[in-house]
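It would be a great kindness if you could assist me with a short task in structural biology. The matter concerns a single protein, recorded as an amino acid sequence and a row of backbone structure tokens. Kindly check, if you would, that the fold set down in the tokens agrees with what the sequence suggests. Thank you for your consideration; the sequence and its tokens are set out here:
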Amino acid sequence: MESEVITERWIEIKNLTGKVITVIEILSPANKRSDGCLDYQRKMRDCLDAGVNVVEIDLLRGGRHAVQVPEDGLQAVEGTHGIICVTRAARRRWHEVYRWPLRERIPAFRIPLRTTDPDIPLDLQPLVNRCHKLGRYWQSTGHEELRPPLPKSDAVWAADVLKTFSAAG
């Protein structure tokens, strides 16, 4: 039996000498499984210990809580699933947290650079929309059951969105 090779990818922002300033990580299901979660969290702590800013983007609805901000430190916001957590190496106990309901666009957020540089805004929503369209995910039958399942009102909304994408195809 052949085992699946998992390729982890992230973005590194470096200065002119090649020193990593900021790491941007989009969490995968492997990062949120019990065995992979501990490795992932250790990797992020190692980045912060090395003076590297960490930006974590978790668009997955299932799996363990894995971002740097403790789960009990998050304010509960009804209907939110995604989380973006920005942790600056210089202030690692303070986190910028972005959350949004499924029906709203992903908010633009700030990418930290060197402490002497201003942050740069990143708007992911146009990229997600483009990937959805070019990847033809809108052609999915939509019959696969989501885990965890969407609340009924969100499921109806999601079905309507998929119909809109399909019609625009």
